[in-house]
Amino acid sequence: MAELVELQVEDMIPELEMMDKLGILNTNEKRNVIKKRKMHEHRLQRVTKSKDDILRYIKFEVELLMVVKQKTQEKGIHLKKNNLVYSITNRVNRLYTIAIRRFPSDCKLWVSYLKFCKQVKLYTCVSRLLDQMLELHGDKPGLFKIAANWEFNDCRSIERARRFIHQGLHIHKDSKLLFTEGFRLELAYTNQKLLEAKGKVEKKENDSPADPIIEGNLAEVIYASAVKKINDVTFFVNLLNIAQGYDFTSSLQEKIVEGMKNKYPNEEITWDTMARREHERGGTLQEKIRKCISVYEDGLKNVPTRKMWSLYLDYILNLNDDPAALPEFKKDCLKNAFEAAHRENMLSEKHYFLWLKKVEDVDAYKILKWGTERLESSSKLWSWRLRYHLSKSDEEGAMAVFKEIISNPNIPDQANIWLLVLKCYQIIDTKKAESLWEEGVNNPIVGAALKGRYIEWLSMTRGIKVARRAYVILAMTPPFSLGLHEAMYKLEDAQPKVSQKNSRVVFETAVNQFGKTNTDVWMWYVKYESKFGKPDVVSRIYEQAIKTLNTHLVDVFISEFHLHKAEAINDRSSSNNETGNGV
């Protein structure tokens, strides 16, 4: 094996000498290339070949090829005067051949080889490679698309491109990907032929018989075949979008739209597509908009869904993004659309907010009230309605809305709404704020979420002793709150003189209430005792945690515990080093 490697490397010496002579590599770089190639060749000669080893060798040679190309270009060396690029390209080609023979089932490997061939213009290899690849991987329609694209775009062969599409569709009879690609290729080819025809003498062009390719008939054939196989309106919308890119497809476009209307009359996207097409037709801008709206209104009669209304509203909203033309007319259209959607109970949360934002001189109170009446569980709308009253200093209105919210258990995220009200009253009326805090922490829906914040507020406004007394009561009153324990232990830790007695009460309560299902409470306790307590206490907590935690959390806790231990050792070591350096 070693002799074979040496022979392979010796064959590369003329190539390296040429690089040296042309000043592409210096002596050290050349030595490094020899070393790397020997290493890769040794790996390549193993009985059991590794795909990763071959790919690393390919990567090395491709990078070397890029260096050679760059430096020959910089030095103005004409590539035809040396065979460096040809030599390295052939080596990579050989390596890819070895790879696909050894690992033929790896689809990514084939695609990578194709990309390389395209990059270095090895066109003769690609056609053969495509046939081999599809023989092995005919179950993947995407590869037929790659093959057809290569033949059409790079080899200018529509015949071979069609062959791959037809071959793929023979196997994958209902492949949207292949029908779409075949449709696109035929239109692109027709466009090419039309451009060629424009360069011919007009008389000859007029005298020539009708060409079905130039008329785009083959794309229509593919469309007709797809109609029989595919039952998906978005697929036909995609075909329509492709056809709209060519100005010779008006009749084909109408055929697709008519087909959608007949086959998918209850699909929202059908009506949305038909309506938006009206905007591209002739007439004044106002006439176009009216026609679009008329089609949308027909769609809403046939498909009265929230999605259909949303598509209609999005169209009108997009119109209003351009205020330069017909601004007042567009605003009226938007106002009318929002009002109609609200009457039909079809506005989403997003559209209620857009109504407030986009329509001028709107009655915000009325719209927010409508929104919360129609979408009773929208926490965001309720919050905005509450903010509206607070922004107007309407305390009575705000409290009325707040009472509506807390009386409805179906409104999610109520804790944030409580905090909004509490924040306001902490500024304008501290007595009312205290009353609300006490009500909130005892509320079964939001109590657990508010307790921690309440303790922080008490500590800040009335001192740590009051907070401690409240903590003892709240900690034992359901619903239990993890946030309460976390807030309290942080308050204790922040005191100028840490009270070990009060701190341990917090940790013991936390592990008693949450010790089965939460590793954090144990780690809080461990870290505290590591800092202020004794090693034997930490060991006791560790053993207690192992016994208490649910089985699936034990390993998690052990990992967290040992990570903390390692970090503590590193911190002590760093501290000792700094002390030693300072002496």
From TrEMBL:
Gene Ontology process terms (BP): maturation of SSU-rRNA from tricistronic rRNA transcript (SSU-rRNA, 5.8S rRNA, LSU-rRNA)
Protein species of origin: Nezara viridula
Domain U3 small nucleolar RNA-associated protein 6 homolog C-terminal: 291-549
Keywords from the UniProt entry: Nucleus, Repeat, rRNA processing
Pfam families: U3_assoc_6, UTP6_C
Protein's recorded name: U3 small nucleolar RNA-associated protein 6 homolog
GO cellular component term of the entry, any: small-subunit processome
Places the protein is found: Nucleus, Nucleolus
Protein family according to the UniProt entry: Belongs to the UTP6 family.
A molecular function GO annotation: snoRNA binding
Domain U3 small nucleolar RNA-associated protein 6 N-terminal: 9-91
Main location: nucleus
SMART domains in alphabetical order: HAT
